[in-house]
Amino acid sequence: QKAKEKLKQSRTKPKEPKEQKEPKKQKEQKEQKEQKEQKEQKEQKKQKEQKELRDVKKKRKADKSGSEEPQRHKKRKSEDVPSFDSDSVEPDEPVEEAKKDKTGASEKQKKKKKNEVQSEEGETETENATLKPTPGKTSAPTGFTILGGFENKPVQKVHRVLPQWLAQPDVIHRDIKSNLFPVSDIPGLSAPLVKKLQNNGIQHLFPVQAEVIPAILESAQQGLLIGRGGYKPRDICVSAPTGSGKTLAFVIPVIQVLTERVVCEVRALAVLPTKELAQQVCKVFRSYAEGGTSLNVVMLAGHKSFAAEQASLSELRGGTRRSLADIVVATPGRLVDHINRDSGLSLEHLRFLIIDEADRMIDSMHQSWLSQVVKAVYRSGGGAGAVSIFRRIEPAYVTAASLSPPQMPLQKLLFSATLTQNPEKLQQLGLHQPRLFSSIHSHSGTPTRTQGGYDFPQGLTEYYVPCTLSKKPLLILHFLLRLKLSPILCFTNSRETAHRLYLLVQLFGGVQAAEFSSRLSPAERKKTLKEFEQGKIQLMISTDAAARGIDVAGIKCVVNYDAPQYIRTYIHRIGRTARAGKTGMAFTFLLGVQEKNFLQMVEEAGTPGIQKQIVKPQNLKVMEARYEQTLQELANAIKVPFEVLFKDNLNK
Ligand SMILES: Nc1ncnc2c1ncn2[C@@H]1O[C@H](COP(=O)(O)OP(=O)(O)OP(=O)(O)O)[C@@H](O)[C@H]1O
Fold first, then answer.
1. What is the rounded distance in angstroms from the CA atom of residue 315 to the CA atom of residue 318?
2. Cβ-contact 435, 235 below 8 angstroms
């Protein structure tokens, strides 16, 4: 057996050298094949691992879908590109976590593994950059890096939050007629002033007056020199409809507080946007100051020469300048002139700064009239020699230290029918702990201001009249001559249109008309307004010069010959009628192209309703021949082609 085995071994032995003799080339091929197989196996393993990861991801998504879906960020486009599915680094953070969960590997190991994978793919990123699991950082097999961070995140809707004082105002009743307060019931009004009101035909106060007058009187309880409790009183803002009696809401308390003054100094300053308004307010102040008080009211609005205004402000007596004015009513331009030219207007004792038509006055703030007034008020206040009680420190940050010394207060009183709700705009006024009185209610009836909402006079009925450009003048004539709606206050968007319409109506005949715009001198405008008030003018054709504040009793009808572009303009224009609880009508002529936008604007402003008023063509027929002839005459007179006579307002 041993011999047999030996023989067997001897037979098999020669085979070894045979194998060794295999060609070198074949061996290399074999090795390559083995390597290839290994690599394939590795690749398969990797793919399998990735598949598992995707499954985990899907499962996680499915689990979370219920509650998280609405907040989930939109998937990046690059994730949807199939070629990136095979990326070794998954872009989503949750997958990273899933990987960790599944393998149970430590964070360090995972980082190492990632680096290895990337180095296989020839990536040259630094460790930190590679490890960042930001969605935008995806290394593609193509060898370039996708820069990211541009995800389409759902933008959260921003809800406007008003400051508390704007959102929760003191409420003013809207209905004038059913909320009247007997004048004698208002606390703080002296008997002579009550008598004066009654003599002027005012037995009851309107809601805005009943709310605001006591509030102003209360802030001046301790006299002129010190605010309530020694502190600066709160500034007051009032937003109430046109014709609701805002003027008396500041005139009465100011007169009441100043009546007790000893030395004549300018203690109240009312600033208004136009000469006409300044004149109107001055008239009201005078009617309550004269006879019964020694208060002097002076107007600085350019009606008189500068020198004449200067003379009415102060006089030199015994070498010292003595104020002749207690109350100054001014337009901003003229006021700044007097401050800058040192005309003898001293505001160092100013107690009330009244800003009427406040939203319009904020718009004109670029003239920096307010900062000049404030500078003039605090001109000598901080001086070391100032007696402590007369000290005035320019408003800055409110601190315990700034509030502690009692000081002569300056209180701002703001009034408007369309007071802005924009806190940024209001901030320009430097208000001190403002208090808002408003008649604007939300639909639920709560005293919260609705966004962009305005209050409309109760007795007003709004209409719109669809028409064509060429028929507009004819419609006005129809309103006057056939419907007998007179007096009419008619608004155009430009003084040229106002002028041409005025000429046309004059030429047509049968109507007492007048124009009111900057084409006229202040004296002419004053005369026109007076005649309109007296009923001598049936149709006053005006630009927006008469849109705000003008109080002419007896205007029953306002016509927007040109549709206003802004809601505030509309509200002020139509507010020239239906004043003081009376009724009135407002018509707006609308071209086809204007209808949609205009109605939407009025709707958003919170109109109680605007009705469509159609004027049938046959109703205009009777006047048509005469009208065409007048148009031709006008075209010849002003040398403007007939067809473009009233077309310029299309673009306005
Ligand atoms: N208590 C009252 N009783 C009767 N009439 C009043 C009373 N208060 C004011 N009026 C009259 O109401 C009219 C409108 O008042 P006022 O001009 O002050 O309104 P307004 O709110 O300032 O309007 P606008 O916002 O258009 O300027 C005036 O003719 C005024 O004399």
1. 10
2. yes
> Burial code of 473-512, b = ≥16 C-beta within 10 A, e = fewer?
bbbbbbbbbeeebbbbbbbbbbbbbbbbbbbbbeebeebb
Buried b (16+ CB within 10 A) or exposed e, 431-461: bbebbbbbbbbeeeeeebbbeeebbbbbbbb
Query: For the segment 321-343, what is each residue's pLDDT rounded down to a tens digit?
Result: 899 999 999 999 999 999 999 88
pLDDT range class, residue 392, cuts 50, 70, 90:
confident
Round to whole Å and give the CA distance between 604 and 618.
34
Q: Provide CB contacts within 8 A for 498, sequence distance 6+.
A: 492, 515, 516, 517, 519, 541, 542, 543
Q: Which residues line ligand 1 (CB under 6 A)?
A: 202, 204-206, 209, 242-248, 417, 549, 551, 553, 575, 579-580
ipTM > 0.95 (yes/no): yes
Is the backbone peptide bond immediately before 487 cis, with ω within 30 degrees of 0? yes
> What atom in ligand 1 is closest to the CA of residue 204?
1
Q: Strand pairing of 320-323 and 204-205?
A: unpaired
Tokens describing residue 497: 């249109």
Closest CA to 256 of 186, 356, 173, 329: 186
**Residue 390, burial from CB neighbour count under 10 angstroms (0-12, 13-18, 19+):** middle
H helix runs in 259-365, sequence order = 275-289, 306-313, 332-340, 358-363
Rounded distance between C-alpha atoms, residue 212 and residue 221, angstroms: 14
Alpha carbon of 438 to ligand 1 centroid (Å): 16
Q: What pTM, to 2 d.p., does this model score?
A: 0.73
- Alpha carbons 316 and 422: distance in angstroms, whole number: 45
DSSP-derived letter for residue 204 is E
CA distances from 286 to 243, 318, 383, 586 (A): 20, 29, 35, 32
CA distances from 134 to 73, 137, 150 (A): 13, 6, 11
Structure confidence by residue, pLDDT tens digits, 539-572: 999 999 999 999 999 899 999 999 999 999 999 9
10 Å Cβ neighbour count for 639? 6
Atom of ligand 1 nearest to the CA of 205: 1
Query: 116 falls in which pLDDT band (50, 70, 90)?
Result: very low
Asked whether 345 and 313 are in contact (CB, 8 A), the reply is yes
What local confidence, expressed as pLDDT, does residue 167 receive?
85
* 105 pLDDT higher than 60: no
Q: How far, in Å, is the centroid of ligand 1 from the Cα of 579?
A: 7
Amino acid at 424: E
Please report the sign of the dihedral spanned by the C-alpha atoms of residue 316, residue 320, residue 325, residue 328: positive
What pLDDT, on the 0 to 100 scale, is given for residue 183?
Answer: 92
Radius of gyration in angstroms for the set of CA atoms belonging to the chain, rounded to a whole number: 41
* Distance set, CA 57 to CA 51, 64, 107, 148, 186 (Å): 10, 11, 19, 21, 74
